[in-house]
Amino acid sequence: MNTELPPARRAMVMMRVGITMMLKDRARFVGTVAGVVFAVVLAAQQLGIMFGLLQKNTMFVDSAAADIWIAPPGTELFQPGQRVPASTIDLARTTPGVHLASPLVVGGGTIKKPDGGNEGITLIGTDTSTWLGGPWNMVAGAREAILQPDTMIFETADREKFGGLNLESIREVSGHLVHVGGFTWGLIPFGPSYAFAEIDAARDMLGAASNRVDYVLVTVDPGVPTEEVVSRLKARMPDLKIISGPDFHTAIVTNLLKNQLGMSFGLSTSFGLIIGLVIVALSMFSSVIDNLREFGTLKAIGCTNRDLTALVLAQSVAYAVVGSLVGLFLVTRMAAGIRSARLVVITPAWLTGLVPIVMLVLCLLAAILALYRVRKLEPGMVFR
Amino acid sequence: MTLEPMTGEAPAVTVRSLTKIFGGGATAYTALAGVDMDVRAREFLMLVGPSGSGKTTLLSILGCVLSATAGSAVVLGRDVTTMRPDELPAFRLQKIGFIFQGHNLIAALKSRDNVALVQELRGVPHAQALKDADEMLAAVGLAGKEHSLPGDLSGGQKQRVAIARALVGAPPIVLADEPTAALDAHSGHAVIELLKALTQERGTTVICVTHDPRIFSFADRIVNIEDGLIRPDDGSHS
Ligand SMILES: Nc1ncnc2c1ncn2[C@@H]1O[C@H](COP(=O)(O)OP(=O)(O)OP(=O)(O)O)[C@@H](O)[C@H]1O
Ligand SMILES: [Mg+2]
Fold first, then answer.
1. Could you tell me if A211 and A312 lie in one domain?
2. If you average pLDDT over residues A61-77, what whole number do you get?
3. CATH number, domain with residue B138
4. Ligand 1, CB within 6 Å, residue ranges
5. Closest to A13 (Cβ–Cβ): which among B56, B94, B121?
6. CA triplet A230, A234, A239: central angle to 5 degrees?
7. A30 with A77, same domain?
């Protein structure tokens, strides 16, 4: 009768009891899982929206086929702002290792609606000899449409907003009549949607000098390390911002997280996690309180604190696993439902992988209160 | 059944000057005031006395779920008052079967799982533990109820499951605190009759606290406790 049960098997026995107890209390189980699901959905949804918003601000940099950007000094985001000197293009083209160097024009424009009102656009003048600056994500027409005189490509999500745009519609953009030559999908940054024109046409519409350049997009020769070319360009143009595409992406993300998005989304995500933590903690604690006599009985008949810890932790792990699975399923469904040209909710694979781990930590933390009560419990109470 | 002390056989329980004082200072309350008591092996002893006399307190110390203030209580050769706290759960598990006033079953577990759990904790493999449980349930007259949850059983049936849990694996000593208090007269009688028969069969020592005069006749001996002391006229065999 004195055979010692190996600790692992003994823990298994207690975990089985814990899971059985958990499933018996159907209402509490559903409530607690709902708490975890709530935390998963709120946290993952908030992060997904945040990644979506970040993507709106990096999409131009991500989509542009440039290895290196030459931008006005002090540039932190991709937006209309200062210019770079027209001579930059030749300086870049004559730098060893540079394959292509294309000018890009970015400016604020307006489109006049048939009923009279105006809407803003972000006018992009793209170099049609390289197409480094777009357009991309075409859903109607072809990018070559802007080779035709006075022809532009607009964002399909804004067709209604711009007064029912169709292929071949004619609109007045910043005082110039243009044809609609095609549509992109999802090219809407924080500001007005991108609208593409051939670079000289864009300069015209913006009333800008015929040599205006906002950014220079550079590609490097095959086999040449980007960083090397960045250094060479920096040496030749010490007053301009020279940055690789991936670094520009990172700089934009960092800037937005620091200045705008990080705080609010950090708060709402933490809020979801904290509410989930509180729900699970209260549920597990009240479960112990409601079953105090059973826990006392288990102690009286010979269960140790370690046994009861295994029992309680099995429950918290089960809550985390079930809650994560249900939560992630809902998040995926909701992301698909929300997805539009205006907002794409992005839940990267690493986030999906991280959710169960975070929930596990959350549920284990939530079990602390219950564990404290169980361990403190005097087995003598069962005789009272 | 005569229970003269057998020569050479150690008593199951020896209690000497056992004292329990709850609290301290002005509110200190002496629940046991120096109890001396012996329980022979295989004896079915009933502990009776008025409410608040210290019966449960004494049983709790013998059952290693309450510490004593002074004195000694030797249970199966070991003084439980000086055992290390981390030794107590294993001692309870291996040596003592508990029956409480309520059935104290785990509501989520089927009757066989309630019983088998004790055996599994003792190291009995799962399948064997279930077999032991089913046999024990049959012995308490609950064959066919192995898969019932406590909530689906009557009060008497639940207390039978509790008896099965206390007796499975044949621990040498069983401690019962008013095991019939929650039952009607008929099932109370049946339950104590069953407990007596099964423990006699197995040679189990039983200490049973009760208020119920109708079951006194099952005792080998009755010990009276009053104000935390054993009444001196005791020791008579029933
Ligand atoms: N934890 C405690 N703290 C303080 N006093 C206690 C505690 N436990 C018991 N007592 C007191 O000790 C005395 C003996 O209690 P005990 O439960 O042993 O009596 P009992 O004989 O079992 O009574 P009953 O027949 O009512 O069950 C009572 O006066 C009780 O109030
Ligand atoms: Mg009592």
1. no
2. 88
3. 3.40.50.300
4. B 22-23, 29, 31, 49, 51-57
5. B121
6. 140
7. no
Query: For residue A127, is it within any domain?
Result: yes
Question: Chain B interface, mutation test: which of A292, A295, A301, most B Cβ atoms within 10 Å?
Answer: A301
Q: Which residues constitute the domain of residue B220?
A: 41-66+83-231
Q: Which residues of chain A lie closer than 8 angstroms to B102, CB-CB?
A: 293
Residues A225 and A93 occupy one common structural domain:
yes
A355 and A233: one domain?
no
Determine whether the interchain pair A297/B106 forms a contact, defined as Cβ–Cβ distance below 8 Å: yes
Say how many CA atoms lie within 13 Å of A278 toward its Cβ. 6
| Residue B74 included in any domain | no
Q: Two tokens at B213?
A: 């005069």
Which residue(s) pair with B229 in the sheet?
B226
In this model, does residue B214 exceed pLDDT 90? Answer: no
Q: What is the pLDDT of residues B54-73, one digit of tens each?
A: 999 999 999 999 999 999 99
Q: Does this model's pTM top 0.80?
A: yes
Are residues A220 and A93 both part of a single domain? yes
Residue ranges of A 94-113 with Cβ closer than 8 A to chain B: none
Q: Which domain holds residue A125?
A: 73-239
Residue B49: nearest ligand to its CA? 1
The answer to whether A380 contacts B113, with C-beta atoms less than 8 Å apart, is: no
Q: Are A315 and A374 in contact (CB under 8 A)?
A: no
For position A1, what pLDDT does the model report?
44
* Cα angle B136, B167, B100; round to 5: 115
Q: Inform me whether the C-beta atom of residue A380 falls under 8 Å from chain B C-beta atoms.
A: yes
> Are B120 and A298 inside 8 Å of each other by CB?
no
| Closest residue of chain A to B66, computed from CA coordinates | A380
Torsion of CA B109, A2, B125, A5, to 10 degrees: 80
**Burial of B26: CB neighbours in 10 Å, binned 0-12, 13-18, 19+:** exposed
Same domain, A309 and A234: no
What distance in Å separates the CA atoms of residue B183 and residue A110, rounded to the nearest whole number? 88
Domain total of chain A: 2
CB nearest to B93's CB, from A301, A380, A383: A301
Residues A105 and A217 in one domain: yes
Pocket test for ligand 1, best of B56, B60, B101, B208 (most atoms within 8 A of CB): B56
pLDDT above 70 (res A187): yes
Number of separate domains in chain B: 1
Query: Quick check: is B140 in a domain?
Result: yes
Render pLDDT for A85-132 as a digit per residue (tens, 0 to 9). Answer: 888 888 889 999 999 999 999 999 999 988 888 899 999 999 999 999
Residue-by-residue DSSP string for A239-283: TSEEEEHHHHHHHHHHHHIIIIIHHHHHHHHHHHHHHHHHHHHHH
> CA–CA separation, B96 vs B130, rounded Å?
20
**Higher local confidence (pLDDT), A191 or B52:** B52
Distance (angstroms) between ligand 2 centre and the Cα of B209 equals: 8
Q: Is residue A82 part of a domain?
A: yes
pLDDT digits (tens, 9 = 90+) for A252-285: 999 888 887 788 888 888 888 898 889 889 988 9
Last residue of a domain, one of A239, A271, A296: A239
ipTM: 0.92
Chain A, 161 to 200: residues with Cβ < 8 Å from chain B are none
